[in-house]
Design goal:
Number of domains: 4
CATH topology of the largest domain: Rossmann fold
Strand order of the largest sheet: 5-4-3-6-7-9-8
Shape: elongated
Number of helices: 14
Distance between the termini: 88 Å
CATH superfamily of the largest domain: Vaccinia Virus protein VP39
Helix content: 40-55%
Radius of gyration: 27 Å
Oligomer: single chain
Number of strands: 9
Length: 380
Amino acid sequence: MNSNTYTIGDLAALANVSTKAIRIYEQKGLLSSKRDQFNNYRYFDESAKLQLQRIQMLRYLGFSLDAISRTLMHYNEIDLEKSFLEQKKLMEEKVFELERMIYCIGRAATECKQEDFNIDTLFDSINQIIINRKADEGAWVLAKHSNEPEGWSKWIFNQAALKEGNKIMDAGNGWGNLWRYNMNRLPKDISVCCVDKHNTHADTFCEFVKDMPAFSFIWDDLETMTFEEKYDCIFFNHVIAFIKEPLPLYEKFRKALNKDGQFICTWGGSLLFQEPARILQGFNPSKASKIQKQLQDILNIHKTREAQLNTVFSSVERRVYEVPLHYESSSELADYLKPFGEKLGFDFTDCMDEFCEYLDGLYAGKSIDLVRDSYLYICR
């Protein structure tokens, strides 16, 4: 063979891959070899070498073999910019996931050093981190496609109308976004008692405000702990889904309020599921009745929650905050809708491509705008 041709071993050595990998690329139609007309030996030429370099570059960027095939074999027919941006999103999510895993491992190592270390407590801590990770993913999506969580946090702060010298409890404070986005607006001499469990986002927020005397922390379970103090305002921001028995906890909150104190409770509103339900029913009319039933069950849960607040507090006022969401691609919208589909009884994972095609047709190639909402209750 001449200097411009390569055996499979030569090509593998040049690219620092295995011969098995090259055979897989051939099976996928990504690479092709030729036969020497004199001895019938199989060889690869310079174009195959260049193609292998392209494959390796895309593999380095995290593309799957199917995605590489679409990119290299049909690049004149696909939107390359869209393809690379979608891959960028996937890589960002992987980085996010790795950061959470690193944090989880670090916290687990810290737990192991405690004198009262218990393996069940450790696993409970890790489970809390996993739960918070799901919340992370939702917050990441909102931050990317709207002004959340900043806009929401500032709006809640405005509704509370806190005053100088107020004593506040943030029940289930998590990341502490309510405070992170309003640090320059805090009234003078307020005190904020943050109540949450260890090994959650609250640990991160505790580190964030460690040099701020206005903030203190209680590491405990809201449902089992005793409230020793009285407060002018208690925030209970998107925590209700983690509570097993709301009524007894609401009673504790009411008793922990000063005479003119207020309890501020929030959760996702009706549009949160109504918009996804509308889209999913259009995609698969045969499942429309099932989706509608699941939606009604969810809306009934919202009504029950509101009724529980009215059972405990003498005054309950609901306010609504709407969040516009903006998407440039059907794949990103499909990712957003997927968890809602699961809760509505329709997991479209196995027909994701068809669902994205449906979204493309539904929005006719235009950017996609949706609205979701959240409810805020001011209780006294």
